[in-house]
Structure formats: structure tokens, C-alpha cells
């Protein structure tokens, strides 16, 4: 026997039995995002590497450790690790700033990160996400969070925790960063290697560290006091309190988490995550925030923006499995030509039907029908002659002959 080739580590097939759950996620996304005024955008799965280096930030784990990068014709290309950078590139390239603001875009699709595969973490995974361009006000922040919560509700996920924080603007954050560095200086040698590397480049990221020894350091009273201090300037504080009052009015429950800094470099002011207690350590289903400088940094006009992304595999692990549906009908006939014709008529009328393609005996076909379908549509010689079909309800075993023309509208009464 020839050697079997397996799926690549960290990637998974989405098998037919799982497809209904993916369809549900995608259908609800289309329905709900459309109601909120979002249009779908589909950008390529690979982009030039520089887009992510500049657009995600070269101090992030994503860019430093997790990218699938390859060379082709002397160009460095990368499989997208996330989609905000690609959407922003497209927004700029297609002059969407000329459209009337807000420009609201949504996407779904695979992302690629070279991470250690484990529960809730794959190397190819899927995200559904939204981006809103052109609104500085906290109304936008509240609306995108509300949209995330309502999308989750549509999937039956009502009890997830929304965490919010404000990272301030580059000016007030600079002061905070320096304070954090100062108070952690005496502990530098006790920090993990990653934190030591982040100390100069991106000190806020330290707060996000999952290593226990680092978490303990951040709990020390003098350090905690600095971490938890209110550092944001008046204008950022005004934005943040407006967001909170909108969320209160919209009845969106949230928890304020000062340690929520998010991995990406480009965020300012509002950041948020939505977490589930049923996911173990990979517990975030949604991450997002405001990124007012990104469009400009990637060469576009100065445009405020905000968005989020959800991990679709993590969402699917939280919703109940959808049982595959039975066929509406299975045609039982000794004449493939007649079965073909009837199948076409019924499929055109919107029914999901199958028939025997393997010349099986009549009784075998009936057996199959009772396993896979709700109704058997029986086409014996008599039926064909009289232009009738015998319809058997396979759960009640009742049977009735119906006129072929009225079949599809009447079969459910049998
Ligand atoms: P995490 O803290 O889990 O690493 P992240 O901050 O790297 O998340 P984001 O870049 O914010 O993740 O992506 C948004 C969402 O995408 C996450 O909340 C998660 O649901 C999902 N996600 C991210 N990385 C993976 C992965 N490797 N496998 C599966 N889902 C993922
Ligand atoms: Mg990550």
C-alpha cells in the first residue's frame, strides 16, 4: 500500500458533519452584519510581508515569531496572520476614504500563525471580523462591541464576559510606559525572557504575560499601584467614560480590566476582549480595539478606525453540535431514467432528494430510503404509466398516491 499523507500539524479538515455549524456562523454573520450596515470584503490570503511588519508591528509575537513567510520572485510574501492590515491596505488602495463615513467592512476566512498547536490554537484557523473607518467618537466603539455581543447572542452565547480597557493615546501612554519601566527595573533579572525582550520595545505587553513568576511580580503592591494607576489624559478619559455610559445604556455588561493590553502595536484608546469560562486557557473568543493611526501609518489619509476579530473554531467549540438533516425524499424506482426526471423536477421545486445510482434492488432502495430520508417517492411501473407517485412517510409508514404535478406541494400531508 502507498504511504498515507496526513494533514499538516496545527491544521484541520472541516468535515461534512461539521459544515452545518460553519454555515450557521457564516449565515448569522451575513444577516447581522448586514443589518448594522457592514459590507463584506474578501482580501487575498497572502500579502507582501512589509504590510504585516508595518501594519501589525514588528515588536509583536505575531510578526516576530508566528508568520508564514516565503520568497517568490525576489519578493517576501506572508500568509495573513490576521486581516486588519489587509483590509486597511485595501481601504487605502481602493480610495474608500472617498466614500461617505462610516465605512463598515466585514470579513471571514483563514488566518495562519506558526504557534504551538494545542486546544483552541491552530496554525491555520478562521476568523470572522469587522472594521469601521471614519468615526472618532465613542459611539463607534459602543456599536462595534454591541455588534459582537449580538452576533454571539445569535449563536446562543449569552453568558460571555466582555472586558474593556483604555490604552490612552500615544502621548499619555508614553508617560505610563516609562513609569512601568521604572517600577519594574529592579525586577528586570526576575522577568521571563520574553518580558526582558519586551521591556524596551513594548513595555505594555509585559502586563499581558502568562508566565506565573511574572504575574507574581505584577502583584507586588508598589508595582500593582503603578499598573492600576489612572494614567490616561483628560480627553482619553472622556472617550472612555462615554463608551462606558453608552454600554450601560445599551445594557451591555462589561468588566474593566487594566491588564488588558492586547498583543498588537497599533491599538489606542479602547481595547476589548470577549472571554468564555468554558474554553480553558485559550479563553478569548473575540479581540478588538481602536486603531486611529494605522491607516495613516500605512500611507492613507488620517482616518480613525476600530474593529474586532473572533476565532471561529473557538466559537464552534462553544455551540451545540447541529445534527445533519435527513433528505426530504429518496426516490425508489427500477427505471433510472424516470428517477432522474423526477429528481430533477423535485430539486427544481426546492426539495433535497436522492435516488439510486447503483442499480440496487427495489427492496434495498426502500431500506436505504428509510435510513436517509423523511419520505420515499416510489415510482413503480403503474405509477409511471399513470403519471403518479406513491409517497411513503417513513416515520409514520403511511402511504398515498399523488399526482406527479402536485407532488411537491402535497407530499407533506401524507
Ligand atoms: P490569544 O490570546 O488567544 O493568542 P490573540 O490576541 O493572539 O489571542 P487576536 O489576534 O486578537 O488573538 O485574534 C482574535 C481571535 O482569534 C482570538 O480571540 C481567538 O479567538 C482567535 N485566535 C487567535 N489565534 C488563534 C489560533 N492560533 N488558533 C485559533 N484561534 C485563534
Ligand atoms: Mg496569540
- Backbone CA Rg: 28 Å
Helical segment count: 16
Query: What small-molecule ligands were found?
Result: adenosine-5'-triphosphate, magnesium ion
Strand order of the largest sheet: 1-5-6-11-10-9-7-8
- Measured distance between first and last alpha carbons: 51 Å
Helical content class: 25-40%
Number of domains: 2
Number of strands: 16
Global geometry: elongated
- The CATH superfamily of the largest domain bears the name Bira Bifunctional Protein, Domain 2
- CATH C-level category of the largest domain: Alpha Beta
The largest sheet is: 8 strands, mixed
- Structural class by sheet pairing and helices: alpha+beta
| Spans where pLDDT lies below 50 across 5 or more residues | none
Written description of the protein model:
The chain is of the alpha+beta class. The protein folds into 2 domains: 19-169 and 232-318, Bira Bifunctional Protein, Domain 2 (BirA Bifunctional Protein, domain 2, 2-Layer Sandwich); 327-413, Rossmann fold (3-Layer(aba) Sandwich), CATH 3.40.50.800. Helices cover 38% and strands 22% of the residues. The chain has 16 helices and 16 strands. It has helices at residues 19-35, 49-55, 61-65, 84-93, 138-154, 170-184, 193-201, 212-219, 221-227, 234-249, 294-297, 312-318, 336-348, 362-372, 381-386, 407-410, and strands at 39-40, 46-48, 68-72, 75-79, 103-112, 124-133, 161-166, 255-256, 268-275, 284-290, 305-311, 327-333, 353-355, 373-379, 388-393, 399-403. The strands form 3 sheets. It has an 8-stranded mixed beta sheet with strand order 1-5-6-11-10-9-7-8. Strands 13-12-14-15-16 form a 5-stranded mixed beta sheet, with helices on both faces. The mean pLDDT is 94. It binds adenosine-5'-triphosphate and magnesium ion.
